[in-house]
Amino acid sequence: MFKFRNFFLFLTIFIFLFCPYFLIKAQNVEAEVVFDSNQIKNQAEVENTENESVDNQKDDINVRNISSIYLDRNTILKGYTVGAFDNYLKLSLVPGILDNDTEVLIEKISDTEMTFPWMLKKISSVVQFEFVNKKAYDNHKPFYIQLNYDEQDLNYKQVFFYDKGQNLWRPLPTKDFPEEKFVRSLIHLPYARLAVFSYPKTEISGKASWYKFKNGDFTASTVYPRGSVLRVYNKANKKYVDVVVNDFGPERDKFPDRVLDLDYEAFKKIANKGEGVIDVFIDPLLIPKDSFGRVLNVGLGINSQPQIDSVSAILIKEKNWETVFEKNADRKMSVASLSKLLSTLTFFSIEENEGRLEEIVKYKLQDEEYNYQYFNKWQVARITLNGGDELSIKDVVYSALVRSANNMVETMVRVSGLSRDKFIEEMNKIVKELGLNSSTFFEPTGLDKKNVSTAREFALISKTALDKKIIADASVTKSYKFFTRNDNSLKLRYNSSELVLNNNYPDFKIIGSKTGYIDDSSGYCLVTRIEVKGEKYIAVILNSSSRDQSFKEMLELLNFAVFDSKK
């Protein structure tokens, strides 16, 4: 029995993916009625009582269009398609999907009752279906839905269902039929609110050129990530080829209408070489997840605001210092190595230090010994140096910010022209001059858990620090190497921020970034500053559960900044 059920599921998915025009032909029963507000209210109250076991229960509702279809035992044995609103929504069910008779309610939901994903475009009405008899469906056998959309849209699309419990829209596996303006999906829910959303700038139609690279069924794309499998149709002759994305291109700034650069071996399967450029339609068969578990920047759930699990976060538009997003932004928390931004700012607040970058200084072992009162030697990020090693102040500053080397921060403090105690005093003086009352710093590296601030306050500290070009430049340097002047020993270190290392974002430019972590007391911290069409935004995340999580959520905040910039 187990093997038979797996075979049934496999066959269903196979038909969905590889037989695009398959649709169960069966008895179509359709009725359409409009209830007055009292009828609707009573209906909602009854159904809310009956559906207490369903996660996504219905809201109190105003006047809606409702299609009501009753499926008796004889009907469900035949296989059938249920359609409503001139087949705007269809439910296609094979025999055996339902175990008992049931009424099926299909409703159009007003947009005013919903919130929608901020990074996607809604191109259909919100339609809700419900099997009134919940015992008729056991949720184990998927069935098809077909949903129309209202406007011709040549971007990638998916059907999403609304998860009311989490206030999120969640994607379903979807196949698009753009010429007919509908999509089809698999679902295994007895109740769902559905809508079609398209992904801006993710084209499924355009022009394709060719180039010689790997001599196989490959393509370059600026939109679909490496590893994506695309079925590419030549619109002129309907021939198609399945290709894997293995490169980045073509140059969209020079050829804005070109969506793909096909490997010559793939191109010649659907067109003549001499054509050079052809009109194509793209059917994405597989789009892999990125390192953060998202597909095309969309996670397993999305809504009108970024979904941030970190304890505290804020996104600020620097013009007028406008808060775009916040979560626990005034909670006082440990900021770990983010402290180094303030330390470096303090160093350069001493006017004469700005002209000392090429000055050679000697390393002292006492610089790293300060660190060991907080953690063991092997636990502390540092640059390995010997006492007496010679390096420039620029080497010190860049090592402190690129590598987050704690011993380099202490070297910077020692050569600043101030005593260590006076330097720390100056750090707190700068904080007070900024008008911040929840930020206190006990040492310059961030190893002390008592270095605390809030997301809101540290956003201003970070902005002030990153306004200094030397600090901003160092914070976004992917790697930094230098040679000690006394023995020509090479020191090479890479930036601790994955966002910086992979700084290739089409919609914004990272102009400042710093990570932070000491232990569970601080969690993973991250500050990032970006520029979007001349506007600057700064974001802070405090106490994330993992480094990857902090990067994932920061990227969502930065994309939300792009969204905000378009308002």
Strand-helix topology:
Layout: H1 2-18, E1 27-29, E2 33-34, H2 37-50, E3 65-71, H3 73-76, E4 80-84, E5 89-93, E6 102-109, E7 121-122, E8 126-131, E9 143-148, E10 155-163, E11 168-171, E12 174-177, E13 182-187, E14 191-203, E15 205-211, E16 218-221, E17 229-234, E18 240-247, E19 258-263, H4 264-267, E20 278-286, E21 312-317, E22 322-327, E23 333-334, H5 339-349, E24 360-362, H6 366-369, E25 390-392, H7 393-402, H8 406-414, H9 420-433, E26 452-453, H10 455-466, H11 469-475, E27 479-483, E28 490-494, H12 498-501, E29 509-516, E30 524-532, E31 535-544, H13 547-565
Parallel strand pairs: 1-4, 15-19, 16-18
Antiparallel strand pairs: 2-3, 3-6, 4-5, 5-9, 6-8, 7-14, 8-14, 9-13, 10-11, 10-14, 12-13, 15-20, 16-19, 17-18, 17-20, 21-22, 21-31, 23-26, 24-25, 27-28, 29-30, 30-31
Q: How many structurally independent domains?
A: 3
CATH homology superfamily name of the largest domain: DD-peptidase/beta-lactamase superfamily
Radius of gyration (CA) equals: 29 Å
Q: Briefly, what CATH class of the largest domain? A: Alpha Beta
Coarse morphology:
elongated
Alpha carbon gap, first and last residue: 55 Å
Query: Which topology of the largest domain does CATH recognise?
Result: Beta-lactamase
Fold and architecture overview:
The protein is α+β, with helices and mostly antiparallel strands and 567 residues long. The chain has three domains: 2-198, Chondroitinase Ac, Chain A, domain 3 (Sandwich); 204-286, Barwin-like endoglucanases, CATH 2.40.40; 312-565, Beta-lactamase (3-Layer(aba) Sandwich). The chain is built from 13 helices and 31 strands. The strands form seven sheets. Strands 2, 3, 6, 7, 8, 10, 11 and 14 form an eight-stranded antiparallel β-sheet that branches. The chain has a six-stranded mixed β-sheet with strand order 1-4-5-9-13-12, covered by helices on one side. A six-stranded mixed β-barrel has the order 15-19-16-18-17-20. Helix 5 packs across helix 10. The longest helix is centred in the C-terminal third of the chain and has 19 residues, at 547-565. It is elongated. The model is unreliable at 1-63 (pLDDT under 50).
